Amino acid sequence: MTTFDVNKTPKKMAMSLQLDLKKFEKATDEEKKQQDVMSESTTFFKDGMRKLFKNPLAVASIIILAFIIVTITVAPHIVPYSYEEILSVEGSAIRVLRTLNHLSTVKQNRLILNRATSAFHIFSEQTSSAATTLSV
Question: Which residue ranges does the record assign to the Oligopeptide transport permease C-like N-terminal domain (predicted)?
Fold first, then answer.
């Protein structure tokens, strides 16, 4: 049996939840110098920007987004047409609008839809009655 020494830190036992007291000893001057050399302190933003610019895909996507934003803001001032001229209907577009004129109101759309569904029901009743007469 060993004698207990008060000045010596106890050893951690295996499979024990006891803390290892050697990990909590004061750092030596050499360890303190090593910690100072290891890293310089930076701000959170500066560190994040450094990591961002190390990623080439992220930088490329930021450049593309910036180009799109600049194009969106500058292009309307460069184009020689106003919004009213771009949205006006002239030429061959009138023919297309005439063919789509029957779809102009909700009431007309309901009427067309009702006609189509009634025609479907008529044809489905005829086919079902023909099928029953054939089976008899």
Answer: 43-85
Q: Which residues of 108-126 are buried (b: 16+ CB within 10 A; e: fewer)?
A: eeeeeeeeeeeeeeeeeee
At residue 136, the pLDDT reads 46
CA distances from 14 to 9, 11, 19, 20, 24 (A): 16, 9, 11, 11, 18
What predicted TM-score, i.e. pTM, was given to this entire model?
A: 0.38
Question: Are 134 and 124 contacting, i.e. CB atoms less than 8 angstroms apart?
Answer: no
**Both structure tokens of 75:** 């292009």
pLDDT in tens, 30-59: 888 877 666 677 899 999 999 999 999 999
Q: Cα–Cα distance between 88 and 15 in angstroms, integer? A: 82
Q: Where are the domains of the chain?
A: 40-88, 89-136
